[in-house]
Amino acid sequence: MMNKRVEEALNEQIQKEASSSQFYLAMASWAENNGLNGTAMFMYTHSDEERFHMLKLVKFVNERGGRALIPAIELPPRDFKNLENVFELLLEHEIGVTESINNLVDICLQEKDYTTHNFVQWYVSEQLEEEALARTILDKLRLIGGDKGGMYMFDRDLENSAIQPAPANTAKPNAF
Ligand code: OFO
Q1: Assessment of whether the complete model's pTM goes beyond 0.85
Q2: Is the per-residue pLDDT at 20 higher than 90?
Q3: N or C: which end of the chain has fewer CB within 10 A?
Q4: What is the CATH number of the domain that holds 114?
């Protein structure tokens, strides 16, 4: 059986990953409505990744004798001021998710659940990558400022994309 405190923390993380997926979907839809097709594609792909993060947790909890609870999802923001604002909120969001992963690591150590601790390390590296990616993109956007041509190139780059994340269940370690 799973340690109850760890199980609860994993279930909270399931909720966070599900809400993340929805948050990226909201950004994808906003970008698509604003003619930013590259950004929309990037966000749709990332929304799938977040769903994969959620599913991986669901499977893990159930396979370890716990009970994964499928949660209600937080309502994501619907309007964004501009693209820079989108990526600022995205970075803020990811920093919050990193905190919650760190908290999960802490609980595993307190409860001496080394198996879950090991499993959660994948999320630790994932968060590191995601935060770095968000910072890189935000730096680019700040450089571009209000320049329309620059913005066009930025969106096209995201579409083509040196900075596109890998699709959800390829090129990822520990895919189930
Ligand atoms: Fe699940 O990696 Fe971001 O939130």
Answers
A1: yes
A2: yes
A3: N
A4: 1.20.1260.10
